[in-house]
Design brief:
With about 450 residues, this protein is an alpha+beta fold. It is built from 14 helices and 17 strands. It folds into 2 domains: about 300 residues, PPM-type phosphatase domain (Phosphatase 2c, domain 1); about 100 residues, no CATH class. Helix 1 packs across helix 10.
């Protein structure tokens, strides 16, 4: 049995973006999709550099070494991306995802980082082989989100792991897999997987036999879904050259390079580097990549941490504001009732939904039934006080109102009364004024 790959690579800029930051490579031994980030001046460079480093692996490699070989090449690409960011300040923040398959004999080495994906259709069933390195996927793994909530989550594109962006060796997902005749692999950027449902991907992989036509249809479906992002996909079928139908065309060994790596837009910057060699290889072989050549400016697509940091800062600000508001409310007082007696409360008389913003600090001996009807209404509606001293002054007036049966002065509810009640004034006047003579006593008409 002689195993080979029949493959097709496609890339489209989409319907919103003006610059294609994706790169893709499909060869007889290597399949790679890279989704760059960092805007017009960075994302396409990062994905192109990654493809350029990995493209050199598209040859026979001992099956025992393919996982280590693939890992070494990806890490070398990461160092090159970091170096470019240091040497060229305009490229600061550039990075890229990588999903790559390296074949040797009947084995595949898989390397993955980011949110590009690999799907495998085997025995009539399609499975997602890779796991997204995103903030939302972490929430899913922790059981804090459902699949339906994840699909609509505003931070679903925030990446936790990529090549570049941080000055350290990235953590890759590495595995060794068998290459079985009849297998069909799909590698794609999130511009496809984010818009086309799993069921639709499964049906398309099953129904369209030709890899090129299948890739074209998947791109078309993503565009029909709105195409807000760059779309890149590779379809590769594992075939047995010894059992091909007599009149079928043998698989080509010519690499197909699509997206930013095929355009070589940064020749002065890249020079004779790996990405430039990859682009030159495309021109030499005469392959025409499937892409949009609109190279206008566009803002950065996304970066892993800024959005998450912004969310955490926003939560902190909101939490601080809520705490400050609560602390202020606990400096307020009011006088109300528990239904039978007058009570002094600390806080605000209003509740915030199910949360009470007040608590009783003193239950007085004043019975509500001893107060005049008008004053009872005032207390039931609560009487505000700016501090505890003011609240105590209100209680004193209520005690007097309970004794004298005179209504509480509504104009004096906020400040302590310095004067006494009319009844007390009359008593004091009677005790301090000399008895009147008959001549001084006013007549009833004068009174």
């Amino acid at each position: 049995m002689t195993i080979a790959l029949r493959y097709a690579a496609r890339s489209d800029v989409g319907l919103v973006r003006s610059n294609n930051q994706d790169s893709g490579y499909a060869g007889s031994h290597l399949l790679v999709v890279a989704d760059g980030m960092g805007g017009h001046a960075g994302g396409d460079v990062a994905s192109s550099v990654a493809i350029g480093h990995l493209a050199r692996l598209d040859s026979d490699t001992p099956a025992s070494d393919i996982v280590a070989t693939l890992e070494e090449s990806v890490l070398a690409a990461n160092q090159e991306i970091l170096r470019r960011a240091r040497d060229e300040p305009q490229l600061a923040g550039l990075g890229t995802t990588i999903t790559a398959l390296l074949r040797a004999e009947d084995k595949f080495a898989l390397a993955h980082i980011g949110d590009s994906r690999a799907y495998l259709r085997r025995g009539g069933e399609t499975t997602q082989v890779t796991k997204d390195h995103t903030f939302v996927q972490r929430l899913l793994d922790e059981g804090r989100l459902t699949e339906e909530e994840a699909e609509r989550h505003p931070q679903r594109s925030v990446l936790m792991r990529v090549l570049g962006d941080v000055d350290a060796d990235p953590e890759l997902d590495l595995s060794l897999r068998s290459a079985r005749v009849g297998d069909r692999w799909l590698l794609c950027s999130d511009g496809l997987s984010g818009l086309v449902s799993f069921d639709t991907i499964d049906a398309t992989l099953a129904e369209i036999e030709d890899p090129g036509e299948c890739a074209d249809e998947l791109v078309r479906l993503a565009l029909r879904g709105g195409g807000p992002d760059n779309i890149t996909c590779i379809i590769a079928d594992v075939v047995d050259l010894d059992r091909l139908p007599r009149h079928s065309e043998s698989p080509t060994s010519t690499p197909q390079i699509v997206g930013s790596a095929a355009r070589n837009r940064h020749r002065p910057s890249l020079g004779s580097g790996p990405a430039a060699k990859a682009a030159a290889l495309t021109r030499e072989e005469g392959e025409a990549p499937y892409q949009d050549e609109d190279f206008g400016e566009e803002p950065p697509r996304r970066s892993p941490w800024p959005a998450l940091v912004a969310v955490l800062l926003l939560i902190g600000v909101l939490g601080g504001a809520l705490w400050a508001g609560y602390a202020w409310s606990q400096q307020q007082y009011y006088v109300g009732t528990d239904g039978t007696r007058v009570v002094v409360y600390q806080g605000l008389s209003e509740d915030l939904g199910p949360v009470s913003l007040s608590s009783a600090v003193e239950v007085t001996d004043i019975e509500m039934s001893d107060l005049p009807a008008v004053t009872q209404d005032q207390v039931e509606a609560t009487i505000s006080a700016s501090d505890r001293e003011s609240a105590d002054a209100i209680v004193e007036r209520l005690e007097r109102a309970a004794v004298t049966s005179l209504p509480l002065d509504p104009e004096a509810t906020e400040t302590p009364l310095e004067s006494t009640t009319p009844a007390e004034s009359a008593t004091e006047d009677a005790s301090s004024t000399p008895a009147s003579t008959p001549e001084d006593t006013p007549s009833s008409e004068e009174g």
